[in-house]
Design goal:
alpha/beta, 16% strand, TIM Barrel, single chain, 8-stranded parallel β-barrel
């Protein structure tokens, strides 16, 4: 029986593709799923994802597309052709609709990014939102459902409220997950792996607690064990 948990996407937020490849080798069969984000995408991250797919891994391209509808539609079509598993776009209604149209009937799952986990109430006020993170997230969830996409990205703190109003199979992907005792870093709205799943998260995104651990493989296995216990 595998000791990994495919619901955990390890964020390969590393300075180079060579370092990401080395981390994948270190983690081995302890990790089935990887997120590739903006740090690596411009310098070979897509090609890295293709190599991971060839090895049977799940790949999440965290592009966070945010542009006019025609551009997002074409970009989503391009990513769908890569046979990726997950793709993020900003949870603006027209952006989400365009991404769903571009994906078409292919297996790629589209996720709407609601409110970044690094933002707290004051940060939202500073950028012009005079509502709580949860109320803004829930508005974005309603719009995601109307747009016909597959799920959203939110902090673990909103997962229970989201799960209460979405259909079975709707994805709730939560970054900002930290094992007990781990440094929160720049994340403001966080939870442990088990509490995030108990609240209704379908998938977790975990980066530094694994990739910056003294023993990344042991850290990944410990998180997978905690997740399987939920």
């Amino acid at each position: 029986m595998s000791k990994s948990d495919a619901r955990c996407y390890v964020a390969l937020d590393l300075p180079s593709v060579a370092e990401a490849d080395a981390m994948v080798e270190t983690l081995g069969d302890a990790v089935d799923s990887y997120k590739i984000g903006l740090q690596l995408l411009p310098i070979g991250g897509v090609e890295l994802g293709q190599r991971l797919k060839a090895r049977g891994k799940n790949v999440f391209y965290d592009f966070k597309f945010h542009d006019i509808g025609a551009t997002v539609e074409k970009a989503a079509r391009s990513v769908a052709g890569l046979k990726a598993d997950l793709l993020t776009v900003h949870a603006r209604p027209d952006v989400m609709r365009s991404a769903a149209k571009g994906r078409g009937e292919r297996a790629l799952k589209i996720l709407g990014v609601t409110v970044l986990t690094s933002l707290d109430r004051q940060a939202l006020i500073d950028i012009g939102y005079h509502e709580t993170a949860e109320s803004l997230v829930m508005r974005r969830v309603e719009q995601a459902l109307e747009a016909g996409i597959d799920g959203v990205v939110s902090s673990p703190l909103e997962a229970a409220a989201i799960r209460a109003v979405v259909p079975d199979g709707f994805l709730v992907v939560t970054p900002g997950v930290r094992p007990k005792g781990a440094d929160a870093g720049d994340q403001k709205r966080i939870a442990t792996p088990s509490s995030a799943l108990q609240s209704g998260a379908s998938h977790l995104v975990i980066g530094r607690p694994i990739t910056q651990a003294a023993d990344p493989r042991a850290a990944a296995l410990a998180i997978a064990k905690e997740m399987r216990g939920v």
